[in-house]
Design the sequence.
C-alpha cells in the first residue's frame, strides 16, 4: 500500500502522523494534485490528495480516498490501537473533532485558491475566516479529548502557522498552543514537517 500525497498536504500529514503512531509502514508517493498525474486520477477521479492505493495483487491497485475514510481504514488495521476511542460518544466526539480540524483546512484551502486568483476580500472570503475562527474556539475546548483528535487539531493549526501566519491563531486559543507545542516535538510530527 502507498499514500499519494504532496509533502505539504495537511490531510496527507494527518495520515502520515497516524501511520507512524500506529506503527504502519506507509510509503509516500510525492504527488502534486494540480498537475493531474495519471496515477492520482486513476486512484481518485476528483484529482485530490491524499489517496491510499492498496496492494490487490493485480498490479492495478484499488484505492481509498478522502482523509477521514483513509484514517478510519488505517486505524482499523490495528485492533489494539488506543488513539481513537472505539465506540460511544467519545468515538463520535473524536470523529467530529477530526471534521472540525479538516473543515479549518478546507476553509484555508479555499482562501488559498481565491488568493491565487487575486481574490483576497469579499463575503465568501470573510465567511471562510469566520468559520476558521469559530472552529478554532471549539477545538480549543476539545484538547485532550482523544489522541486522534489532538493529532488532527495539531495538523490543522500547524498548517495555519505555515500558510497563514498573519492569522495569529494562537492569540485566543491557549489550550491549542500548549497542544501544538507538545505534539510538534514528537518524532511523528518532526518526521512529517512540511517543506517551509
Ligand atoms: N476532503 C479531502 C480534501 C483533500 C484536499 O482538498 N486536498 C487538496 C490538497 S491539500 C487537493 O488535492 N486539492 C486539489 C484540488 O482541489 O483539485 C480529504 O480530507 O482528503
Sequence:
Amino acid at each position: 500500500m502507498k499514500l499519494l500525497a504532496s509533502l505539504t498536504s495537511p490531510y496527507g500529514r494527518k495520515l502520515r502522523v497516524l501511520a507512524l503512531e500506529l506503527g504502519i509502514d506507509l510509503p509516500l508517493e510525492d504527488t502534486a494534485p494540480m498537475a493531474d498525474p495519471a496515477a492520482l486520477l486513476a486512484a481518485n477521479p476528483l484529482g485530490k490528495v491524499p489517496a491510499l492505493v492498496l496492494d490487490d495483487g493485480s498490479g492495478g491497485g484499488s484505492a481509498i480516498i478522502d482523509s477521514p475514510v483513509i484514517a478510519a481504514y488505517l486505524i482499523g488495521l490495528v485492533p489494539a490501537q488506543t488513539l481513537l476511542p472505539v465506540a460511544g460518544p467519545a468515538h463520535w466526539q473524536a470523529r467530529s473533532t477530526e471534521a472540525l480540524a479538516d473543515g479549518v483546512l478546507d476553509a484555508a484551502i479555499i482562501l488559498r485558491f481565491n488568493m491565487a486568483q487575486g481574490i483576497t476580500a469579499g463575503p465568501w472570503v470573510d465567511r471562510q475566516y469566520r468559520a476558521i475562527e469559530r472552529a478554532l474556539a471549539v477545538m480549543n475546548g476539545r484538547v485532550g479529548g482523544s489522541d486522534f483528535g489532538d493529532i488532527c487539531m495539531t495538523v490543522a493549526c500547524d498548517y495555519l502557522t505555515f500558510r497563514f501566519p498573519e492569522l495569529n491563531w494562537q492569540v485566543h486559543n491557549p489550550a491549542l498552543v500548549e497542544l501544538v507545542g507538545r505534539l510538534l516535538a514528537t518524532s511523528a510530527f518532526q518526521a512529517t514537517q512540511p517543506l517551509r
